[in-house]
Specification:
This protein folds into 2 domains: about 150 residues, 3-Layer(aba) Sandwich (Rossmann fold); about 325 residues, no CATH class. The protein is built from 17 helices and 18 strands. The strands form 3 sheets. It has a 6-stranded antiparallel barrel with strand order 10-11-16-15-14-17, surrounded by 4 helices. Helix 3 crosses helix 4. The two termini are about 50 Å apart. About 50% of the residues are buried.
Length: about 500
């Protein structure tokens, strides 16, 4: 991944001056050793915070160490003013955790009372209006705190990435597909930059690269990736030129940002102007951590990037597309198992999913577009999709969305892709999510979400839920069990 941040977490111990400072320092060292065993990217900050002057020392050491995330560690009760001042002034993704007592034989001079101190820390976090990551149970032994840090790292990676992210968009959505349009004001609230462009800007840039010597190397790499799936080799030079157009646009326009993603118009005029469909290129950039959302779906692209940061794996954007026929369910009872028919749906897009997330993908053409753009003869301008079955395994279906009032909402649902032939076209798979039918009705339909969903190729619900909370999202929906009705769900149905 070339487009996601690398987390380096600085651990700062804090100590209330009426407790032994050595207790907090000793416990900090044990946490660092536990983190090393888990290969966690931490750096031990030697400055221990007892007062405001110590805050300045710790901040200077944090900066010189290159840390881009912070653990405020209560090795004992902790000084609630200075410790939360540290979190506020650091300007980094921050978590708080506290030390558990270590032995029944050392509860006089060796008692730190951090269990109590965490309460006052939380009170002062509220006073300073800080958005801090607090683990489910934030008090633990060194090994337990190291595991808390492991949970925080993907959250911190996403927060760092978003704070330095720019979204490039090209072109408006077609009138027939207004669903993914949303105000961009919420992006600025998140610290995300956006550069909106006309598709003519991209078309001009693309044409200027005709004959560029770099195209040949990209084409060769495409041929290597596709292997026997290279069914339409004649379209590769144009696709390679388009990939070069996107990557060079990103390089020239990144500006003050460090990371970038795209939300591009991809039909219907794209094919007749560019002479291909861009799906395969989108899939290749996703592999490098640069999602390219279809149909100018800005918040879809943002959601894909969050998934990429959370999992360090390529993400994709799919339509929550069609039901699974009852006869397909009946014919595959062993694979379907305990899932009900309404727990299943097919996730589909034209051909934008990374090859590493699919089974035996191959280059193809966009059937739906061919029907209208070139209904007779062999496909030409509709070539360029990467098609095949999405790989079996764990997934998380989710989306972060801005609404008309610029507020943010999100949903998260963990599930899996079944080892079942979808018997259809595109990048497609049969998805299974517990209680999907109710989730579809009372969250996706009931809360007016668009049809695009970001797909993380792992169970990432824990990290995503915490990311959304720290971004200030208060409406986070999830697939509730049958025993827990949704707001507005008819109890007599």
């Amino acid at each position: 991944m070339t487009n996601v941040p690398v987390v380096k977490l600085g651990i700062v111990a804090v100590s209330r001056d009426c407790f032994p400072i050595e207790l907090s320092q000793k416990r900090r060292g044990k946490v660092v050793e536990a983190c090393k065993k888990l290969n966690l990217p931490v750096v031990e900050i030697k400055a221990t915070v007892e007062n405001e002057k110590d805050v300045i020392k710790a901040l200077e050491e944090l900066k010189s160490s290159g840390a881009n995330a912070l653990l405020v560690y209560l090795g004992n009760f902790g000084p609630e003013g200075p410790e939360t001042m540290l979190a506020q002034k650091a300007g980094l993704p921050v978590m708080f955790a506290a030390a558990a007592e270590e032995s029944k034989d050392d509860l006089i001079n060796g008692r730190g009372d951090a269990y109590c101190g965490m309460l006052n820390a939380s009170y002062n976090i509220g006073l300073r209006n800080l958005k801090a990551y607090i683990p489910e149970y934030p008090v633990g032994t060194a090994d337990e705190v190291a595991k808390m840090i492991a949970d925080f790292v993907p959250v911190a990676r996403a927060l760092i990435g978003l704070s330095k992210l720019k979204i490039f968009s090209f072109g408006p959505r077609p009138f027939d597909f207004l669903a993914c349009n949303a105000p961009i004001k919420a992006l600025f609230d998140l610290g995300v930059e956006i550069q909106e462009n006309s598709e003519l800007d991209l078309f001009e840039h693309f044409n200027k690269l005709t004959g560029d010597p770099r195209i040949a190397a990209i084409q060769k790499d495409m041929e290597k990736e596709l292997g026997t799936g290279n069914k339409y080799p004649g379209i590769l030079p144009k696709l390679a030129q388009y990939e070069l157009a996107l990557t060079t646009w990103m390089e020239k326009n990144l500006g003050a940002s460090e990371y970038a993603i795209f939300a591009n118009k991809c039909w219907p005029a794209f094919q007749t102007s560019f002479g291909f469909v861009p799906c395969y290129v989108n899939s290749r950039l996703a592999t490098r951590g640069i999602p390219v959302a279809c149909e100018t779906d800005i918040y879809g692209a943002l959601s894909e990037y969050i998934a990429t940061c959370a999992t360090e794996m390529p993400a994709t954007l799919l339509d929550i597309n069609n039901t699974v026929p009852y006869d397909m369910v009946e014919a595959n009872k062993k694979v379907v198992g305990s899932y009900k028919p309404h727990d299943l749906f097919m996730g589909f897009h034209c051909g934008n999913t990374a090859s590493c997330c699919m089974d035996s993908p191959s280059m193809s053409y966009q059937l739906i577009m061919k029907r209208s753009l070139e209904p007779k003869g062999e496909p030409n301008i509709t070539r360029g999709t990467l098609e095949g079955k999405i790989r079996t395994g764990k997934v998380t279906v989710f989306r972060l969305q801005s609404w008309a009032d610029t507020s943010l909402r999100a949903y998260v649902a963990e599930g899996e892709v079944l080892d079942l032939d979808p018997k259809s076209f595109g990048s497609i798979g049969v998805f299974a999510v517990q209680e999907m039918g109710r989730f579809y009705r009372y969250v996706l339909v009931g809360k007016h979400y668009p049809h695009h969903a970001a797909i993380a190729f792992d169970h990432a619900g824990k990290a995503l839920f915490d990311i959304f909370k720290l971004l200030g999202v208060t409406d986070i929906a999830w697939n509730r069990p049958a025993s827990m009705p949704y707001d507005g769900e008819n109890p007599y149905k």
